[in-house]
Amino acid sequence: MPEDNSVNKSLIRDSMKVYLVEPAVGLYAFSCFLSFPLLQQFIYRRLWEDITNTTYPEFDNVTRCGKNSSNNETNYHEEVQRHASLLSLYSELFSAIPSLIVTILLVAYSDRGGRRIAMMMPVIGTILYIFFGVMAFSYCKMPQTIMVLLGFLSFIVGMVMVSFAKTTELMFFARIPMFLAAMPFPVIRSMMSKIISKAKQGALFACISCTESLAGTVSMAAFNSIYAATVAWNSSFVFLLSAGLCMIPSIIIGILIVMRVDFSTKDKEVPIEEKGLIQDQNDNPDTIN
Predict the structure, then answer these.
(1) Which residues form the signal peptide (predicted)?
(2) Angle CA(97)–CA(99)–CA(103) in degrees, nearest 5?
(3) Cα separations (Å) of 234 from 51, 74, 76, 164, 230?
(4) What pTM did the predictor assign?
(5) Residue ranges of the alpha helices (H) in the chain?
(6) DSSP single-letter state for residue 269
(7) Distance CA 194, CA 205 (A)
(8) For residue 249, which of 161, 152, 182, 176 has the smallest C-alpha distance?
(9) Could you read off the pLDDT of 129-142 as tens digits, one per residue?
């Protein structure tokens, strides 16, 4: 009987571990997502009080998207925006640089320790959004290069609309043409996975993940610095610059479309040596080379 009780307690603990991980990760992600906009508002409010030595105007219907020389608060808002952008830059850098190191360690450890489903919880929503979007275009038999080009053009149009928006309503409407902006990333990964063998796809996606994290950190630092330097004379310059830089990959994809480059849907043939390596890994998943 004592042995049966210990077995039952062990099973209960194991079942609780399974069912308590997902809610914990969901609550953690939910709290983080709520704290991001509040942190930005807190930084802006504190900088306003420190720079102007006045209380923050909570009820102000004057738009900040356009110049208003009759309003003395316009210069204050530009100065506060510049300092808030720099402070947000420093905060993001100090949080992003350690995450790059952790990402590399986790990717290396995952080959030996396995993957945890809980690590995928924060991105489930994005996966569903991208999956159904790509599936809809695939159902229409649209080429992958066209999907990527549409995603880039969607982002460019959205950034241009944001740069010329002068009211709060237009800022929200600018998100409508950007509904395809997240589509190029999974499609490009799919295209890249078809040009290499299966034995090297793990290394490919690890390099892609590390490159994306590094590019995100560098772009965040660059665009925050540019915005802080240009907000005084043209607050929309950074959005136009982002749209202009996105034209570069759009032109490259356009060239591939004109050249009619065919990314075959068939898997690339794997050499005999690599087939043996894959078979050994499947037979012995816990073996460490």
Answers:
(1) none
(2) 125
(3) 21, 13, 15, 11, 6
(4) 0.51
(5) 2-52, 73-113, 124-139, 144-164, 168-173, 184-193, 201-230, 237-259, 272-283
(6) P
(7) 12
(8) 152
(9) 566 766 666 666 67
Give CA–CA dist 189/195, Å, rounded: 10
What is the torsional sign of CA 61, 67, 72, 78? Answer: positive
Here the tokens at position 126 are 């994005």
For the record, the structure tokens of 235 come out as 């607050």
CA 78 vs. chain centroid, Å, equals 28
Per the CB < 8 A criterion, the answer to whether 270 and 196 are in contact is no
Contact between 227 and 163 (Cβ < 8 Å): no
Q: What is the pLDDT of residues 15-52, one digit of tens each?
A: 555 556 667 667 766 766 666 777 777 777 878 888 88
CA–CA separation, 237 and 243 (whole Å): 10
Lookup result for tokens 């360690």:
105
- pLDDT computed for residue 108 by the predictor: 65
CB atoms within 10 A of CB 81: 19
Model confidence at 287, in pLDDT bands (50, 70, 90)?
A: very low
